Amino acid sequence: MILVTGGAGFIGSNFVLRWCAHTDEKVLNLDALTYAGNLANLQSLNGSEQYQFVQGNIGDASLLTRLFAEHHPRAVVHFAAESHVDRSIAGPEAFVETNVVGTFRLLEAARSYWNKLEGAAKTAFRFLHVSTDEVYGTLGVSDPAFTEITAYAPNSPYSASKAASDHLVRSYFHTYGMPVLTTNCSNNYGPFHFPEKLIPLMIVNALAGKALPVYGDGQQIRDWLYVEDHCSGIRRVLEAGVCGQTYNIGGWNEKTNIDIVHTLCSLLDEMAPAAQRGVINQQSGKPVLQYAELITYVTDRPGHDRRYAIDARKIERELGWKPTETFETGIRKTVEWYLNNQQWVAGVIDGSYRDWVAKQYETGKQ
Ligand code: NAD
Ligand code: DAU
User: Fold this and answer.
1) Cys staple from 298: which of 47, 213, 315, 343, with CB 3.0 to 4.6 Å?
2) Total domain count for the chain?
3) Which positions ≥6 away from 108 have C-beta within 8 Å?
4) pTM value?
5) How confident is the model over 113-124, as a mean pLDDT?
């Protein structure tokens, strides 16, 4: 079986769902259920023998020791993190606690477990650390994209904490020979994305007639990857990646933020016309005719990175992985998903998703 951390978050839950669809191998999901963890994402696995959930913190060394001893994972796929840059600016401490100290505790528990393994089990064990392109810092418009040998230059407390965790993971390979793999991925989008991040926030706000807040001049560039493609990239690295190596994962989809917002507005105009839905502009009190009317430029994010771009040639060349979605197909699916899952959105907005554990998982807790 594999141990996944942070499997109730956006990418982690997509990964767990895809894992269970692609293989029979069991998966244990360890998640602290912070505000970003939502077990409703995994509702379709209720009752599945393949999937087990444990509510707990990656910083809890004794829990980790027990989980390794009881479940004997052949691999760890480590997603758990504080992930939102704006939150890291408002309160960096949780980022250091989870992303740095939490990753350290997880590495220690994994090392102690791996040390005791023997033979084929020891050789086969993997610790896959899921990281971000933000560790490489920011690019100018004509700079080449980040490769695996681009020097680290993190600019936010979030990216600094992820960079620190990447360095710890690297050191466990070089110092202890632990079989680690690191992936550095660009911006993901798709189902179950928490509506504090750009794409889901814009969809949710537009449908509610709220302002669409674009930071600064909106010309910052991000490189977008459909979340299922990220998950297939991680599976491929877990299967065939060379220990000690890092792999950039990206979708070759650089877009300015303002282009993203306009694309979302056009798709919503087509798929959920504001006039038909009776959307009222919450600021002016007037009916919305086209969602782009709601675009509002707001104060920029402090230290805002201008451009990210991932050079994903290594994973394609060495492991034969390529994304399957284009941005056009992926973003249309994403908008459709949000339109078809208004209850999920409502549960997140009113906070009721947090009751899910009490309602559904009383017996699932360990
Ligand atoms: P998320 O914020 O949606 O989910 C994080 C999950 O981790 C949540 O379920 C949360 O409850 C859990 N968690 C947080 N602290 C924990 C702790 N101390 N112990 C156990 N669980 C804890 O994040 P995401 O967007 O799904 O990102 C997952 C990983 O992928 C992160 O490591 C992030 O840095 C990385 N990443 C994200 C993106 C992106 O675009 N979202 C891109 C590249 C890499
Ligand atoms: O690049 C990978 C990273 O992508 C991940 O490591 C992070 O976990 C993930 O949160 C994401 O970080 P970003 O800061 O790029 O994502 P976010 O959705 O917060 O913002 C995307 C861009 O949109 C960024 O340039 C800021 C801008 N933005 C964001 C919000 C929330 C706005 O203009 N307005 C907004 O309201």
Assistant:
1) 213
2) 1
3) 61
4) 0.97
5) 98
